[in-house]
Amino acid sequence: MPAPYFDYAALAPEIILTVAIVVVLVADLLFEEREKYQTSTLAGLGCLAALVPVLYLAGNGADRTMFGGAYVVDNYALVMKALFLVAGYITVLLSTNYIEEGDYYQGEYYTLLLTALLGMTVMASARDLVTIFVALETLSIPTYLLAGWRKHDARSNESSLKYYLMGVLSSAVMLYGMSIVYGLAGDTRLVEIARYVATGAGGHLFDVAIFFTLVGFAFKVSAVPFHFWAPDSYEGAPTPVTAFLSVASKTGGFVALLSLVYVGFFGRSDAWQPILWVLAAASMTVGNLIALRQTNLVRMLAYSSIAQGGFMLVPFAVANQGDGSARPGAFSATVVYLLIYAVMNLGAFAVLIAVARKTRSADIDSYAGLFNYAPALAVTMSLFLFSLAGIPPLGGWYAKLVVFKSVLDAGTKQAVVLGVLAAVNSVIALFYYARVAGMMWFRPAPADGGSTARVPVALGAAIALPSALIVAIGVYPNLFARLGELATKGL
Amino acid sequence: MDWFDSWALSLAAFIPVVGAAVVLAIPKAKELLIKQVALLTTAVTLLVGVIILFRFDYDAAAKLQFSVNKSWIEVISSRYHMGLDGISLPLLILTMGITLLCVVYSWDHFPEPHNPKAFLALILLLETGMIGTFLAEDLILFFIFFELVLLPMYFMIGVWGGDNREYASIKFFLFTLFGSALMLLSFLAIFFKSDPHTFDIVTLSQQHSAGMVHGTQLLIFGGLFLGFAIKVPMFPFHTWLPDAHTEAPTVGSVILAAVLLKLGTYGFIRIALPILPEAARSWAPYIGLLSVIGIIYGALGCLAQTDMKRLIAFSSVAHMGFVMLGISTLTSFGINAAIFGMVAHGLITGMLFFLAGSVHERFHTRELNRLGGLLLQAPKMGWILGFCAMASLGLPGLAGFWGEFPAVLSSYQPAEGLNVALFRGFMVTAAIGTVLAAGYLLWMLQRVAMGKIPAEWEDAHIHDVHRPEWLAWTPMLLLILGLGVFPGAIFHVTDGAVQGISKAFGDGG
Fold first, then answer.
1. Bridge partners, residue B70, by sequence
2. How many folded domains does chain A comprise?
3. Out of B76, B140, B192, whose CB is closest to A411?
4. Is A6 near chain B, with CB under 8 Å?
5. Digit-coded pLDDT (tens) for A54-73
6. What is the total count of domains within chain B?
């Protein structure tokens, strides 16, 4: 066996992240206590530095394949890597003041954050069961710790423990499925698995394997009925970590799901399409209905992100119509949705953190009269909430549109039923998003309010960047639509 | 002026949003400047409209003029395609005029909690949405503009509205969103069923849904119907309207009545009928039926109201019933009447809402039981109210007549293939509706304007019409009279374009 071929240019983002991890760790040892906030700057720089080779590779254009097809750097991988790195950078911006002022361990926090990011960037390129699993654990394990970062708070402990137990359980289930896949197909590479699938062999045992693998990922992306850990974990974790979990970590799960379904299992749509149909329908409906009843904004966003996950699963459920015509549309629909969702959800959490600095609360009631004493925060929060609801001219409408489009492209009865269900759900969702907006705009401010909330620079940037993006995407969606199209090319 | 022809529509649609951005950039304390910028913006927008009026080729009113067709979202082959024909033109000018007058009217009576900055920015944003909807020639572009009006109106009702504003605003939002979500699904279905796939309204109208299975057409039309019918609103989807109208601030009600409701009827004329003519024929009897139910139900609803504004809101349901009845005949006569009815209703009901707002401002109530004797206390306002009530009940010589009467008449002879007896039944019912309309409007007039001054207000000093009100109302009153005397001014513009649509239903004009 010849020595494996290393394409260092293709691996540059991961290498830079690894260097950044080491630098932050060492810096944490060397810095005095009061200088430790600078680890946040280092971590942010690390994310941005890793973005440079991603842009270079994207400009370069050629697909690069390593390790016998187990590791692929194509447009799709690069788009997702860029998403992870930007999301990571925004998370650093969100964390800076929160972690510093909260007297938390700073160096370790950013080390773990970067490690999780490393797992995600690897995930974007992983086209092999083992690589996918390793990437998944690399991104998951640090987040178990991060969720429990507020260690004197029982809720945070609960959050961490729940998340950990569920994560381990899902990994076990998933590994079991993967082991059967390997046993049948005789290979862990997705391309080879696809070849095996094309032969039509495997029978019901392969159905079982697909089922377990998908259920494992359903936990990761918190699809109903495997969602129940998410709200508690989200509420207990430090808010920047929640933002990271609901965006980056969830996207990590979706990226793996995309690779597995569209590359590996695609030919066996009879096995996975019904499962994903049910997951999509249940996630949208249950997520939305429970979100209606929430009184805490973080919990509401947790359920809303479950419902949003349902929308992302919709294209999966209609991806294979036999002739392959619906496949690229469905694939790019999920990719575009992930991109836009990341922008708006991060933005919403950024405002939430900014408001909580003043009100010390995430209760929806505490948002009363925000428009009167902090109009900028109220306006940007409204932008993100209505974007999540899919109201034009904010970016979210385009995400919803591509999902509907994939449904009608398939055109089958099941697809259209799912489409109508999604349409009805988008109306239900508006109700709880608008309720928060109504609280901010229509209610009088509390008596002690009145002083404007001061927003630190880092946090301000984390609000301004997504706000500008979400309006830009809404007015000129071609921006992100092109990325979705590019990502689909490698399919 | 070539550059103007290619930029006119983009200017018309986007000057307001630029104005809104400028308004937002001005500090809150400089109130006068904010008002001036808003006024200037709406005036410039109207100026663009006036220049369009002069440069419009009236002999080719059926053709799209001032077209722009640029790439927008290539990935889904949706284009930035705008155009203006005889159907859009009256509605475009109506929108521009009403918005300007609303800014004038608001000048020194901004509703609580004041905040002119946010209020005017929302009005300007609203104007972009409304104008864009009347100009869009691409389904996705249409959808964006159609939805763009939701957010500003939601905030306008919710922040500046009456006591029950939160309920009314969210109800308005949810109803409309529900319709438009299904409408969007229908748009996408049209895209995938068309050959070649396109969102272009012009191309789709020429295809006449050729090659589409009838059952699919009916379903797609159903989605469009829900989207537009909720906006109109048609019975039984009208329940959001009385709440929204009653709770909205005066200017919000005026814009809602004068323009927003027209987005729905316009959608039928621009999209549903031309793109899916076969399905339209199958749906027409049901649309006609719901229209006449709306006419009678709206009228009876009016008779049961004790709140002046709510009464006018219900009268909108009835009037939009006439408009929809005209459309459901699928004849050029009926559709022309419908467009006239849209403009007339916009002016007349807009005026009535202005009046209701001014009455409320003076008496702090709109309870019909507590009002009375307006003619004695504020004679000018009383006479204006009388004039508008007469216009609204369809008195010949005023604008309302030309929307109502031809619409009723057109159902005597609906398009080929429609059940003539059924439509004549609709005609008789609608005619009864006009009698009821006279009933509730005169009843309202009697209780508000005539009789003695109630003891409660005997000593109150009631200011008659003041300057911003004169400025805002005079153009509308003149138009109500002018269009009543010269209805040809609108029929002449719309007829050519309407015949292009009714041709598909075997109507020679």
1. B80
2. 1
3. B192
4. no
5. 999 888 877 888 888 889 89
6. 1
